[in-house]
Amino acid sequence: MQGTDHTMESQTLEIADLTCRFGAHRALDAVSLSVGAGEFVSILGPSGCGKSTLLRSIAGLEAVEGGTIRIGGQSVDGLRPRDRGVAFVFQSYALYPHMSCAENIAAPLRMSELGPLGRLPLLWRLSGRMRRTRESIADRVGATARQLQIEPLLGRRPAALSGGQRQRVALGRALIREPALFLLDEPLANLDAALRNRTRTDLRALQRRIGATTLFVTHDQTEAMAISDRIAVMFDGRIHQVGTPDEIYRDPETLAIARFFSQPHLNVVPAATLRRHIGGATAAGDIRIGGAALEGMAGVVAFRPEDASIRTARRPGLPGLPCTVDHAEHAGHDANLFVRLADGETAVVRIRSHEIADWPQGAEGVLHFDLDAARRFDAPQGEAETPSRAREVA
Amino acid sequence: MARALGWTLLCLAAAVTLLPFVYMLAVSFAAQGTIYSGALLPAPSLAAARENYAFALTEVPLARFMLNGALVCGVLLVLQVTIAAPAGYALAKLPFRGRPVLFGAVIVALMIPMQVPAIPLYVAIAWMGLLDTYTALIAPFVISALAIFLFRQFFVNYPSEVIDAARLDGFSELGIVWRLMVPAAWPAVAAFATISIINHWNDLYWPLVVVTRTEMMTPPMGLAAFRSSGESAGNVGALMAGGVMITAPLVLAFLFFQRALVRGFGMGARA
Amino acid sequence: MTGSTADLRARRRAGLLLAAPAALLLALLLFLPSSGVLVLSLTDYRFGMPGASWIGLENYARMLADDRIRQSLGNTALYAAIVAPVSILLALWLAVLIEATGRLGGFFRTVFFLPVTATLVAMATAWEVVLHPSFGMVNVALAASGLEKERFLSDPSLALYTLAFIGVWKMVGYNVLLFVAGLSTIPKDLYEAAAIDGADRGWSRFAMVTWPMLAPVTLFVTVITLIRTVSEFETIAVLTNGGPNGATEMVLYTLYQEAFRYFDIGLASALAVCFLGIVAGASILNIVLFDRRSRHG
Ligand SMILES: Nc1ncnc2c1ncn2[C@@H]1O[C@H](COP(=O)(O)OP(=O)(O)OP(=O)(O)O)[C@@H](O)[C@H]1O
Ligand SMILES: [Mg+2]
Q1: Residue A356 burial (CB < 10 Å; 0-12/13-18/19+)?
Q2: Helix axis angle, B62-93 relative to B236-256, nearest 10°?
Q3: Which residue of A has its CA nearest to B169?
Q4: Same domain, A18 and A160
Q5: Is C14's Cβ below 8 Å from some Cβ in A?
Q6: Any residues with CB less than 8 A from the CB of C218 and at least 6 apart, and which?
Q7: Residue B13 belongs to a domain
Q8: What is the secondary structure of C265-295 as a DSSP string?
């Protein structure tokens, strides 16, 4: 064991119709999800959508109202949290404040492998078996610490560690159990941006090495896309879409998902407005959006700022919307140009930042967008009649 | 002008506060004769001091009283914490039926002075033939509503995620109490220990009720008995020596652990 | 039935199990005997006598008719009426002074807190020696300045006031501590704001900032002090035995005498019920007033 990584037998996870209620509020509403052995799946969703509740239900920490959970094909309904073979890294890390890092990491082993007698101070020296168990635990703590490069910290209390170090100790406490399933609840949320990027890479590398099935909760879509095999997008206690990062980015099933993956801006224009202003046909014929004809189309059309461009004059064969420049926001290499469409709605166009000077306020132009990259969605309830506008997704 | 007045008042108040301490110490160091000499403070003498303290320790079983006091306080404190800590944890973190009722009961219990249940408790203890025993001195106080309340208030703010982590790591609920909560709650433990020890070391009422035999007396009761026994009539020095000895442990402990004690009383007061 | 609910059930059971010893003992050692007092107060039970019979409210009638008990209640009220205001106002003044002294404040706090930890029985004996009619320090000083010596503890017109003085001595330190804690929570910028408005020191500053900010602490201190003063027992039991001639009888001492000297359990129980009424009433008043304050303030 020493010097080598933990490798664990990875297990599948199947969740069916999981429902969990807090009073009248449904935190989980018939959630179903299958995760393959060794797979890394992110649960992505806005704050309060039930991500933590889902993880806690899998671990057995939350009382569920209905549904089943199977780990490695075995139902874990009726099993206590400690017996489910899952490891949990909490958003706050939940380290034991009065124990050293070594004791924190050793805690799960001490509880499962030492009897109540063995945990008493001094008494364990009397028995050879207890002494060997203790030695073996100490060895495994050392190996885990080496793997996570936290050996120098082992003697310290959590209060004396930085956020990143705490995060790794929490990871160590989860790793050492060699669990069938890893549950990580926003383990990177408390780290600064630079450390976050580095840690997420490390985390994914570690997961590949040990091959453990992992559920990873986050509300950051770039993070989810960067490290996941698949992403499950959650809103309001329901899983809306499951797919690879690419599938979800290219083909979001609902407007809400599209917005979530087009932060900070997504242009949403009612199909009717589009018809009124977009002008003539394309060079190839009728205007088609997402494979369907614009003629007779209902709902809204959404496209990303990076799929849009702006020109000074309309070109025949290239349909576009007349617009007036409002203002530009510098964003480093690129810039976001806010324009007003003919009906007074705003839209956002991605331009190169050196072009800002070409588009002073009040300048007239024509907005084009990549018709193949645009998607049609049903109009969100209550928004059908309101004018389209670029929305900020918080 | 106002400042000077303030200082004068402060110093005067401090002097009056210290007066009985100084006088008690001075008389305990003085020979019989010099006390009546008409001087403000009698002159100290080492020989007289030795005689006074020896009298208090041998003729009066003061050492026995102090041992009784220490035993009662120690056993009480251990039992009070052992019983109250799990209850405080349950009230703070576990959703059991009857939790609001129990918490309400604890609040009501905080308002009941010990002299109210004392009469039936005395009748029961006498009926069981337990008068003049340590059991009689200890049993009525093993349950402390204040301890439950303090622990509960302290545990409520303990992060629930750490408790969840412990459950995943295989801690039992009792293990969570003793391995996680109590070690983290040592300020509450210290606060409660302060209050409990001060109360029970100094209590006179209950020992007067259940104790009559000299060898079962606690320090204040023993001193009160010594004072009124007539033996002390001619021996004020020994009486004061006794007073010094039973007061010293808590006063010295207070001087050593001042910060914890002051905070403890602050916490207890808020309860 | 799913797994998590099973675990929740286990947690509920654990809660019940962990709370059970405390709940049981609370019922057995506190609530049962406290209600027992209520029952006993309606009987003519005397300890050592066989049997007892219901006599309704007769004990309460006896209590109110008994001159000794009436005097005892009166003494308690007078004692509380002296000790509570004096110890509270004095403590408030001392606390404000201590706050202003800076580094020496710690020293004074320590001095004033000493009586709280000290064994009252021992300190009462010490006071007795200090106040001794012939050789006590105070009388020596009185004689030296040409005044009459006083029998502080055996003169019926003085004894209660002497006990009240010792009571103040004991209570002030505790109250100072609470006030100092309260003062330390007043934000410094409030004082600065008041200084800009012209209340920069002395009385105006106290009236504008300190007193209003300290009101909740004062309420709490008042209730605690009242409870502790009506519960005075030690000094009476050690120094005066309620004498001379009942001049220092107070409710707890009378209760103790009736119950454990005369074994008149019925009468003593009625007294205990009254005592509980006074103490619990003060506590409830505290909660109600505090609640109202925090809702409106
Ligand atoms: N113990 C609880 N009691 C009542 N409601 C709760 C409880 N825990 C969570 N909720 C509610 O359930 C919903 C989902 O909560 P959950 O913690 O799972 O959100 P989340 O997706 O993890 O959010 P975040 O990203 O902010 O952590 C929220 O509306 C929350 O208010
Ligand atoms: Mg969460």
Answers
A1: middle
A2: 30
A3: A108
A4: yes
A5: no
A6: C88, C92, C179, C182
A7: no
A8: HHHHHHHHHHHHHHHHHHHHHHHHHHHHHHH
Taking an 8 Å cut-off on Cβ atoms, the answer to whether A81 and C7 are in contact is yes
Does a structural domain hold residue A169?
yes
**Which site among A22, A61, A119 would you substitute to test the B interface, given the most B Cβ atoms closer than 10 Å to its Cβ?**
A61
Does the beta carbon of A50 lie inside 6 Å of ligand 1?
Answer: yes
In angstroms, the CA B90 to CA C17 distance is: 9
Residue C133 in any domain: the answer is yes
User: Chain A partners of B157 at a C-beta cutoff of 8 Å?
Assistant: none
pLDDT tier at A230 (50, 70, 90 boundaries)?
A: very high
Q: What is the mean pLDDT of residues A199-215?
A: 87
Domain end call among A226, A259, A292: A259
Residue with tokens 């009662």: B72
Touching subunits for chain B (3+ Cβ pairs under 8 A):
A, C
- Give me the domain span that covers residue B265: 61-270
- End-of-domain residue from the set A259, A293, A310: A259
The pLDDT of residue A256: 86
Give A78's contacts in chain C (Cβ within 8 Å). 1-3, 6
The pLDDT value recorded for residue C169 is 92
Place of tokens 């910028």: C189
Q: Which residues of A touch B159 (CB under 8 A)?
A: 92, 94
Nearest CA to ligand 1 atom 7: A22
Are the C-beta atoms of residues C148 and C207 closer than 8 Å to each other? Answer: no
Domains of chain C: total: 1
ipTM of the complex: 0.85
- Closest C-alpha to A390, from A265, A255, A300: A265
End-to-end Cα separation, chain A, in angstroms: 46
Q: What 8-state DSSP symbol labels residue A251?
A: S
Please give the residue range of the domain that contains residue C168.
Answer: 62-296
For ligand 1, is residue A47 a contact (CB within 6 Å)? yes
Tell me which residue has its CA closest to atom 11 in ligand 1: A27
In a domain, B100, yes or no: yes
- Whole-structure pTM over 0.90, yes or no? no
Tokens of A272: 């009717």
pLDDT tens digit string along A27-70? 898 999 999 998 999 999 988 899 999 999 998 888 888 889 99
CA distance readout (Å), C288 to A16, A297, A337, B107: 52, 66, 61, 14
A87 Cβ neighbours under 8 A, 6+ residues apart: A173, A174, A175, A177, A179, A181, A182, A183, B168
Q: Which residues in chain B touch residue C237, judged by CB atoms under 8 angstroms apart? A: 204, 208, 224
The segments of chain B whose pLDDT lies below 70 read 1-2, 36-40, 230-234, 260-271
Task: Indicate the number of domains in chain A.
Answer: 2
C-beta separation of B17 from C114 below 8 A: yes
Q: Which residue of C has its CA nearest to A82?
A: C7
**Cβ pairs A/C, distance under 8 A:** 38
Domain count, chain B: 1
Distances (CA, A) of C31 to A26, C35, C124: 42, 6, 33
Position of tokens 């109360």? B199
Contact assignment for A79 to C8 by CB distance below 8 Å = no
A92 lines ligand 1 (CB under 6 A): no
Question: Least CA distance to C10: which residue of chain A?
Answer: A80
- d(CA B183, nearest CA chain C) in Å: 18
pLDDT one-digit tens code per residue, C49-72: 777 788 888 888 888 888 888 889
